[in-house]
Design goal:
about 65% helix; 3 helices
Length: about 80
């Protein structure tokens, strides 16, 4: 059986290129995983709720991302009451 260090060396020695979409998807999965773990810990780490925790994390992140997409930038107010 290969040791962790040997596997890590093998992976590092291989030059693998990932497209932008694959990297983006991997980061999304990592975000979901981290939030699902936080949710899992927040209710005492009960076993058997992994799917529910994962789905809740997906919903929460989707809600956050949706809110970020519709965030409106503040604009400077211009008075048009000047001499026209």
């Amino acid at each position: 059986m290969l040791s962790h260090d040997k596997i890590a060396e093998t992976i590092e020695s291989q030059e693998v290129m990932f497209d932008e979409e694959a990297v983006h998807r991997a980061s999304q999965i990592e975000e979901i995983l981290n939030l699902a773990y936080q949710i899992h810990r927040s209710h005492g780490g009960l076993l058997g709720y992994d799917l529910e925790d994962w789905l809740q994390a997906q919903r929460e992140l989707a809600g956050r991302n949706r809110a970020d997409q519709f965030r409106v930038k503040e604009t400077q107010r211009v008075d048009f009451d000047a001499d026209f």
